[in-house]
Specification:
The chain is globular. It is an alpha/beta fold. A 10-stranded mixed sheet has the order 1-2-3-5-4-6-7-10-11-12, sandwiched between helices. Strands 8-9 form a two-stranded antiparallel ribbon. Strand 6 (238-243), helix 8 and strand 7 (261-267) form a beta-alpha-beta unit. Helix 10 runs antiparallel to helix 11 (330-338). It is built from 18 helices and 12 strands. The two termini are 34 Å apart.
Length: 521
């Protein structure tokens, strides 16, 4: 089960997928590993987050001219259409040593439809962390048709992700074994020991396979990469659309390069004031809120419906359901419950999956879990969860212990009997004995002098609860953060909420900045 319930912002309708089996596509694996760099255990994150970039970059980097070519197909998928072009740019592995080793950053672009009205490039990050923008942007481009008329639509695989020296931590067999054997809400000393051992083994696998890049996968370094991408693309300012984790990345950019901010949208906003326990607490509240809203929509009392799901999870903990040659255990079932809560259009799938699981058939919940975990029908997993963990643990300097996690369980269980225990334990399992140090406890987001930044929060967002948007708008500073409230459900507003979409389009296309606190219903 992928820890930390943050998913890429491109949430899709799952009905067709579940009718034909899971079709998640994997990445292409690591590419362009630097030729020389310190081992993971010897390095610390370089260039503090308050440094606007460190030493000046050489002209060999800032003067690059990308070689745009037809894109190749991702592993297990299809190549994007003929309008899309792909390229790579080189960035410093370590910004404190800009003349040292470089790594490639993979880009994808579709040029603006109306050349005479072109504004510039619009760079996307869809979240995760660990989501491949090269894969996601073409698949979701229909939502951005209006923006594509005046912008070159551009995205990238951030450092540590797939084509950009992608982090790899374990193989498919190891991942499948963990899903089958590790209890992510341990109740005995033996289960706790296995839980921690798996977490440590994951980090050790990252160090063995990706130790050269592991210390440098911080969000602040990716923000520096974005400024180099801006220069290479020839844009005087960075126009940016960040979703989910992409909002944390956008805030990091605005903090480091406030004078380079053009038009920036942050949708489904990560709380910049939260530490690792705070993020877990926020998600416990957010997912229970979304579950309550879902249960109410089906005519169930939220407390009764929650107890019903807890009973199912407890039953599966004692005796998993056989699904072919696999099993649906409580951890996979919980993942299956999480997946449909990301988009209201998928709520009916949750109703069906829960009903069938209660009646002895776990196939639908397992399919939902597989989709979330990026497992395809052949048993192959993508490496998004590897990159997600590497980026998160490079960012966070906190390393909670099992004893500290255990003390959170009563509070978290009160907040959510369904999600609380997992998210409490996750605080200790996520970065246990991580092989490199983390950068900070919270995200620096102040951006004095930056142009107005739209901060869009959805009141029913499960993964990045609405309160995070309020805190982000405040953290960016007066005259910079512009809060837009979308009253609705789901993770992200653009493309699913008409008023919010119209407001964002007006800002990006016509520079119309709404009043602070505008509410869309």
């Amino acid at each position: 089960m992928r820890s930390s319930f943050i998913r890429t912002g491109a949430v899709v309708a799952l009905s067709a997928v579940l009718a034909t089996g899971c079709t998640a596509t994997g990445g292409t694996g690591p590419a362009g590993t630097p030729s020389s760099a310190p081992a993971a255990g010897d390095a610390k994150p370089s260039v503090s987050s308050t440094d606007p970039g460190g030493p000046a970059l050489p002209a060999a980097l800032t003067g690059q001219h990308p070689d745009w070519r037809r894109c190749t197909a991702p592993e297990g998928g299809e190549a994007p259409g003929s309008a899309w072009r792909c390229a790579t740019v080189k960035v410093p592995l370590d910004y404190a040593k800009p003349d040292g080793p470089t790594i490639p950053i993979a880009l994808i672009r579709k040029e603006a439809g109306a050349k005479d009205a072109r504004i510039g490039s619009l760079l996307f990050n869809f979240g995760g962390p660990g989501g491949s923008g090269v894969d996601i942007l073409p698949r979701g481009a229909a939502e951005y048709t209006a923006l594509g008329s005046r912008y070159d639509l551009v995205s990238f695989d951030p450092r540590g992700v797939q084509r950009s020296s992608g982090v790899v931590c374990r193989d498919d067999k190891e991942q499948a074994k963990a899903e089958r054997t590790v209890d992510y809400t341990p109740e005995t000393a033996a289960e706790e020991k296995a839980f921690r051992a798996d977490a440590v083994a994951f980090g050790q696998g990252c160090a063995r396979r990706s130790g050269l890049v592991l210390p440098y996968t911080t969000t602040s370094n990716t923000a520096r990469d974005m400024d180099l991408i801006r220069q290479v693309l020839g844009d005087p300012k960075l126009n940016y659309f960040g979703i989910s984790y992409g909002t944390q990345l956008g805030a990091a950019y605005a903090h480091l390069f406030p004078r380079n901010v053009g038009r920036m949208v942050l949708d489904a906003v990560v709380d910049p004031t939260a530490d690792s326990v705070g993020h877990a607490r926020n998600q416990t509240i957010g997912f229970q809120r979304a579950l309550d809203n879902y249960l109410t929509s089906t005519g169930q009392d939220p407390k009764d419906g929650t107890r019903r799901i807890v009973r199912l999870l407890e039953k599966l903990d004692k005796k998993p359901l056989a699904v072919g040659d696999r099993e649906l255990n409580d951890s996979l079932a919980l993942t299956g419950v999480v997946m449909p809560l990301y988009a209201q259009q998928n709520w009916p799938l949750l109703t069906s999956a829960l009903t069938k699981a209660e009646n002895g058939s776990g196939a639908e919940l397992l399919s939902l879990a597989d989709w979330y975990n990026d497992r395809d029908a052949a048993g192959h997993y993508s490496t998004q969860s590897h990159a997600q963990r590497a980026i998160s643990c490079a960012d966070s300097s906190e390393r909670p212990t099992l004893d500290e996690a255990r003390t959170l369980i009563p509070e978290f269980r009160r907040l959510s009997p369904v999600f609380g225990p997992f998210l409490a334990w996750d605080t200790a399992g996520w970065c246990a004995d991580w092989p490199v140090e983390g950068e900070a406890t919270t995200t620096a987001a102040s951006a004095p002098g930056a142009a107005p930044i739209l901060v869009v929060g959805t009141t029913g967002d499960p993964a990045t609860p609405y309160e995070g948007a309020e805190r982000m708008a405040k953290a960016l500073g007066p005259g910079v953060g512009v809060l837009v409230t979308n009253k609705g459900e789901g993770h992200g507003a653009y493309g699913s909420a008409a008023c919010a979409t119209k407001t964002i389009d007006a800002y990006l296309l016509r520079a119309e900045v709404p009043a602070y606190g505008k509410t869309c219903q």
